[in-house]
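Chapter summary example: a protein plus zinc ion.
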Amino acid sequence: MPIGDWFKKQERNTARSPAVEKRIIPDGVWEKCKGCNEPLFVKELERNLKVCPKCFFHFPVSAYERIYQLTDLHSFEELWGDLIPGDPLGFAANKPYIDSLAKAKDKTGLNEAVVCGRARIDGFQVAIAVMDFGFIGGSMGSVVGEKIKRITELATREYLPLIIVCSSGGARMQEGMISLMQMAKTSAAIARHQDQGLPYISILSHPTTGGVSASFATLADIIIAEPHALIGFTGARVIEQTIRQKLPKDFQTAEFNLAHGMVDMVVNRLELKRMVARLLDYLGASGVKE
Ligand SMILES: [Zn+2]
């Protein structure tokens, strides 16, 4: 944006919002923290793995950002990136499903809501899948299920530990029953990986809900959650209406799930790579360390 336009924009912003507490934040340079409302320098935020240095609020990250943060530099080799979903029902709600897919592709640069491949984490060779919430809410349709199944089978075949970073609103209902079938398909693949005695670590980021939380996300040997991530199956409001009881304020947070035994640890993103590497070592993956 030319500097003249920037000043004009600031004047407009000031005129519209005279409240002193309202800070002026130019696009792309500063971002306001949703946790503490402080303006954060975008470059600094990125250096800090998109965690607010003041209040530790965890900003959402895309699949590729996560891979960059979690795996060793240049070690990631993507697989099946060209798989694209069909539209078996010819589904249309507010807009046709194929239009939603095209829009999601434009927005994220991805063909689907999960990115898979081989990589190294602190030297350990792993098979990894990372979901992207920006692609139709990280929903699981036929391609997400197929790619999770393929990466799990590759891990089984090649005796590799499996790492899946989850972020999903659940099954992709635009694909109807085919999306629900992915829960069974991915779970069966993970059971075969487990039969080989190979480690599987899942990382639940905000939010991990619905059919993903009810299948591969929670079948891991070790389940890690990011701080304050929403983790659950059905939304709290629906549960309240069904059971006619008020739910606790922190219901379905990572911390609530930890206290109730549904996740094994809550790990700050800044410590995540180190913790995954330690767990891989502990779980006996050292044999594959290069
Ligand atoms: Zn903050």
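Key point: The domain at 60-288 is CATH 3.90.226.10 (2-enoyl-CoA Hydratase; Chain A, domain 1).
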